[in-house]
Amino acid sequence: MDEQTRRQLKIAAAKIRLGVLEGVYSARSGHPGGSLSAADVLAYLYFREMHIDPQHPKDPDRDRFVLSKGHAAPGLYAALAVRGYFPESELCRLRHVGAMLQGHPDMKGTPGVDMSTGSLGQGVSAAVGMAMAGKMDSKAYRVYALLGDGESEEGQVWEAAMFAGHRKLDNLCLLFDNNGLQIDGPVDQVAGPGPLDEKLWAFGFEVAEVDGHDFDQLELAFDQARRTQGKPFAILLNTVKGKGVSFMEGQAGWHGKAPGEEQYQTAKAELEQALEVLENG
Amino acid sequence: MAEMVKKATRESFGEALTELGAVNPDIVVLVADLADATKVENFGKAYPERFIECGIAEANMVGVAAGLAACGKIPFATSFAMFSAGRAFEQVRNSVGYPHLNVKIIGSHAGISVGEDGATHQCLEDIALMRAIPGMVVINPCDHYEMRAAVQAAVDYPGPVYIRLGRLAVESIHHGDEARDFQLGRGMVLREGTDITLVATGLLVQEAVKAAQSLADKGISAQVIDMHTIKPLDTKLILKAALETGCILTCEEHSTVGGLGEAVASYLSEACPTPVHKLGVEDRFGHSGPALELLEEFGLTATAIEARVREILKK
Fold it and tell me: Can you list the domains of chain A with their CATH numbers?
């Protein structure tokens, strides 16, 4: 990856993080932790990987993205807004009465949202269905689904994984945002869904594990996923919950809580500073 | 006029779907290890590329159906009612109902007439569950011809539909011609009457007709409505019947909690307070036994309907 591309992706991710902050602060609720951990992979998907056109969000040949960890909606919304699907001003109305942006993604009313999600485990199956449809129609599009590591405690994730492996859906790529924390604490203490790599291999997946905040590593993994034939692919993203906001990083408490006024100002200053450095060196 | 056909509605469903598959390439059938029981094996033989075996994983099946629908397909997700509507309820609610996707949820082997398999498989709550989901159409056809018309209507309707299929062979009471008049959300008056209206659905439509015939011999005039669509409910017809006969008895092979009876009672209690009596399974689980014996034991027969009407009108 050349320096220019890397810098543009970092800028996109920084803008997504600012969008997340604006959204949850305006809503006085929402899920910043898992949105911030996913900001880099969302930037990579929407600004480099996926074949999409914000002007034609329903193009039947587009790549699909399903946010199975639907509570990271602020991250998805920020990515869509920054990419141009709708005005960024919508982010400030997140979760408001009558607003387009619902607490969890609603495909009926939001351009660019390919599936309504929020109940954990369900988005993976929908993504599998989309991949099946692509195979049936001999379409070239690819389907991506982002899951949480806590989400992988849902049995439906494994029903879907078994099906995808059995059907050899090589147009499907599951992305696990392994930020290590869920509401009740560290994922490995709550229910221990790991080791995800061994489980996914056993279910017929090819698996790559990368630093989910490193665009060079993301590029290698996504390229490998696209080249892999005859198997679905999973990318395990090692991430930090709350990434980019110092006081939120690695704190389970920031899973589903909005910052207060002072915290908002601190976080905003940090994120704007990071963006400033990227844009102006 | 078409001939009387004695056939389980699940068989009629499978036939109709296979025929429609020839003219509509978007129809996809999903099964969860029950292709033979839900009578879609022939669809699979005719269109193997549009037949998806999901294995014993109904939650995933419903989600896969949602994804297919999001890409323009018309998926029929089939299983026993207990599993497609029951086990996968939340998937139907959140992955199909909320995004209003064009998925058809099929619940076979509904009701007590499952028979020997017993309570774990005798779904008596599917209508209650499905009608609680906003935007979900709920159909419970009573015979061969009505089922064929219902499958066509479900394909034509661009949104989520639940269709209930029965296991038992039943004699048809409709004719091929009448099936052409089938409209979603429009009940059919099978018999006019003045003393009471029997609003029946599914398996109990035939029983209600038989009961009305027998009651006529005893000087009681019972109107019979075939309410194949439970949601949206034909409130216009219900109101008319309430005004004409002043008394309603609903008949369904379903729990009296949340089914057709409560839908009718709920509507009339506000629109036109009228006594609504409910014949169904009274808030209890079923158990094993031959289907016909169970229907008798649980009071889901023409004889039971007749006795209930006489009791109601005596008061």
Answer: 3-280 (3.40.50.970)
